[in-house]
Design goal:
The protein is α+β, with helices and mostly antiparallel strands. Helix content is 54%, strand content 19%. It has two domains: 192 residues, no CATH class; 198 residues, no CATH class. It starts with a helix and ends with a helix.
């Protein structure tokens, strides 16, 4: 094969009597290079968008969440928290209570989801880095504080904590009290100050209010029960593996979901979009690779005298076939390597400069993340398609130009 490759390299670089051969060969290389570069850029962009979506949703959807299999709440003592904290992959945990409430400030009101959490949840959710205004804290000099989504705070027009006033009124149904029987007594009200507002994404900004879990427990009359335990994994830990370990400790009384399982539709949609795009581009590579047929056809016509000479010197038909097979592989290899370099260059420029912007978005430019496994897959796919196109073309051309002579 080494000798066949030597002949193939010589044919690729040599001047030809027919300029059309050079042009068609160049077209084959360019088509493969352009589509390969497009595959690198598109897949890297889709990786970046997936990371962005994950980043936008991960603050509230912790890595692992435990909820009761039956019912809405459970006692904290029913779960072996110490064993979960002892797992090597667990960084932190927080009990949580979620309930829909009515918020009022002056004449403005809004329905929101109140989430009661422990203080460490603020770091678990990276809220200090997501604050739009104010501070990420749940306790002030005048009592408990809450943190509103930026859109929710703007809708209510509620001022930030001044250390004196408690301008936000939270109304919630009291657990176990029927509206028809208790009427106004079926609702509990509390006045509280606002520490600030966070901005993560439009959905959370319009929906959530974060509050101390003791405050929420008192307001809802939960008696120490909670609706969930949220677990944050250490960096680099496989979340699905950790979810299975936590589930083994929690037992069948609890439903254990990873962040990916909770948002399975979103993640599956992103993955499906990525691989569908990859398949479409690979099909374009397949179409472009068949330009090799024209190139090899013209080359065989031009090199008929060389083939007779090689055959006269004892070369077999199989050897001549390997020469042209290597020629096709060289065309594919040059095109794919050039395309990979071009695609990586485009991605590097976007990462460094953000030259392609995103108007009216949460980020200023298209996010890009290069995954080495994707690059390897692209190269192998293009190479395999090129081998297929070359083999198919040689099967027909060889019978005409090699076997008959």
């Amino acid at each position: 094969m080494r000798l066949a490759l030597l002949f193939a390299r010589r044919y690729l670089l040599a001047k030809r009597s027919r300029n059309a051969i050079n042009v068609i060969t160049l077209i084959s290389i360019v088509v493969i290079a352009v589509v390969t570069a497009a595959m690198v850029v598109v897949l890297s962009t889709l990786n970046g968008i997936s990371d962005l979506v994950d980043k936008l949703y991960s603050p509230f959807d912790q890595d692992v969440t435990l909820t009761p299999t039956a019912g809405k709440t459970f006692s904290r003592n029913s779960l072996a928290l110490d064993r979960i904290l002892a797992l090597p992959g667990v960084q932190a945990t927080s009990w949580a209570i979620e309930e829909n409430v009515l918020l009022r400030s002056g004449e403005q009101q809004a329905v929101a989801t109140m989430k009661g959490v422990e203080p460490q949840y603020l770091e678990m959710a990276s809220l200090p880095g997501s604050m739009y205004e104010g501070q990420a804290r749940l306790e002030g000099d005048n009592g408990p504080l809450v943190i509103l989504g930026a859109a929710l705070k703007d809708q209510l027009g509620v001022p930030r904590d001044d250390g004196v006033m408690r301008p936000l009124t939270i109304s919630a149904p009291v657990r176990g009290r029927k509206l028809l029987r208790y009427k106004e007594q079926a609702f509990e009200q509390e006045h509280v100050a606002v520490a600030g507002s966070f901005s993560i994404n439009m959905e959370f900004d319009q929906q959530y209010v974060i509050a101390p879990i003791a405050f929420v427990d008192s307001l809802l009359h939960y008696g120490g029960e909670v609706t969930a335990l949220e677990v944050k994994a250490r960096p680099g830990i496989a979340i699905e593996d950790l979810s299975r370990e936590v589930a083994a400790i929690a037992g069948p009384r609890f439903t254990t979901l990873s962040r990916y399982a909770k948002n399975s539709l979103m993640y599956r949609t992103n993955a499906t979009e990525k691989w569908f795009t990859f398949a479409v581009l690979a099909f374009i590579v397949l179409i472009g690779a068949f330009n090799i047929i024209a190139s090899l056809t013209l080359m065989m016509i031009e090199k008929q005298q060389d083939m007779r000479t090689l055959t006269g010197m004892g070369a077999t038909t199989a050897f001549v076939r390997r020469v042209f097979f290597a020629e096709g592989l060289l065309i594919v290899a040059v095109g794919s390597i050039t395309g990979l370099m071009l695609g990586l260059l485009v991605c590097a420029v976007q990462i460094r400069t953000g030259i392609v912007g995103l108007a009216n978005s949460v980020v200023e430019s298209y996010p890009v993340r290069i995954v080495p496994a994707d690059i390897a897959l692209i190269f192998l796919t293009v190479l395999l398609i090129g081998m297929l196109a070359t083999a198919v073309s040689l099967r027909g051309l060889g019978q005409r130009y090699l076997i008959e002579r």
